[in-house]
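Hi team, as promised in this morning's meeting, here are the two structures we talked about. I've kept the exact order from the run log so nobody has to guess. The first one is mostly here for context; it's the second one we should focus on when we meet again. Sequence first, then the predicted structure tokens.
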Amino acid sequence: MMNTAALALRDGFIKGVKTGGFLLRIMVPIYLIVVFLRHTPAIPFMQEKLSPVMGLFSLPGDAAVPIVAGIFSDEYGVVAAMNGFSFSSAAITTIAMIILCFHSVPLEAAIGQSIGFHPAKYALYRFLVAIATGIFVGWLATLTLGGSGYAAGASGIIGGADAPAMVMLSTPFGSFAAESWQGILFEMLSGTIFNVVLSLARIIIPLMIFIEFLLVYKVVDRIAPSFRWLCKVLGISGEALLPLLVGLLMGVTYGAGMLIEINKRTPLTRRDFRLIGVFLYACHGLIEATVLFTVAGANALFVCGLRLGIAVLVTAAAARLPRFAE
């Protein structure tokens, strides 16, 4: 007969595979669509139209390139897009704060919808938070970090020496550079394997095993009293705390996996789901995003501390609105 730890390991692995398969059905099609769109005139056209808006955030017009790229991809796409410019630390910080509120919109909206978050409402919410955050951080960064324009030296962490060969394509939007079809298909295939399947597997399976151990040994029940103050501030129940913390540290995708598993054991209220969505869509993947953008040149205090503070304030305010009551 298997002991408790062995059973938790086995059950956690099985649940990790099942949860990963569920998330992949959403992630893979969206990822392929986003990769394709990045190689069409649609995104360059949007960049051109949005450039004048960048002044609202005390940013140069070129900042539209990484911001638009981030809307359809993730933080790594933003850093890659910044690599071609010499943005100052203030500009990188402002771009990071905007895009961390409003990135990977198609993918994260699909994941959110699968667990009960209304995609259009939360997309609008993220957009408004990104605008407000961008205006505030752009102003604050200009005052404290020496301006939000350009600086000498490269701003990105991804080198450009080995950029793939380009071909010029003519479209109604004008001519633009794009990789060959073979390159695009290779990016789709390799990205699906390495950026989606393997990346998800190496986190979601250990995470589900970790969750199973927490549940079997009732760890959450033991530590819950220490976090009652946080639950009270955010207006959530004790059961909602663990998925919120997982999403905060690891991202919406993994927070969703946690919600799926927790909800099977102890169904959460609509209020909890709404408030978790409000918090996580304002601040998630805190560790990875902070490290990534700090290396790229952003101010760590802004990216980590200010972002977390904004999420707490917005969620606490939302919890006190009548529409979030049962």
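And here is the second protein, the one for discussion:
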Amino acid sequence: MQYNRIHKGKFISRPNRFIAYVELDKRIEVCHVKNTGRLKELLTPGAVVYVEDSENPGRKTKYDLIAVEKGSMLVNMDSQAPNRAVRKWLEAGGLYPKPRRICPEYKYGDSKIDFYIEDESRRALLEVKGVTLEREGVAAFPDAPTERGIKHIRHLIQALKDGYEAYVIFVIQFKPVSCFVPNDLTHPAFGQALREASCAGVNILAYDCRVEPDRMELDKRVEVKL
């Protein structure tokens, strides 16, 4: 996936989940944060960040916060990027070599699962989770409790019983990384739900990404340690 009109700046502060103050060309701009996670280990005062011009000229915030440098690592923090990257991966045959149908935001039960995919003989539901949390080379999810995430995991277990294949793909929005783990320190119930899903037959996948200030794409499969 590709961004347009990227600017390099310096992070100042984040007064709430939705906006951040960023220094651009010696002026302070209010930017929209495209990720409502905590991001405390990423958005530190003085961190180098990358913002994109908003496509909506009437919006109060003229820029969207896209990526941040964490040491030598560039982390994409756009919560919409994982789904867009996975869509391209699916279209290129990442899951089924010749997909006949790819449907985003598929209604299943009382939730919307990120993707429904089918080919000539199979059908699958796939849930996407973006990962921005890194500790000593290990990627982890979530960075904050997610009851919604547990609900989607439960739906995927039910989907197996209804004849679907079921997948969770953790899109690690940076590299390098040695492996992926559920973040049991922050939300042990999510980790437990993920382990139950794996035992039931849900496929748990993780991929890292090639990240540049103006683009992000899935790269290599990463070991999942449950």
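Starting points for discussion:
The CA atoms of residues 18 and 204 lie 30 Å apart.
The first helix runs from residue 81 to 91.
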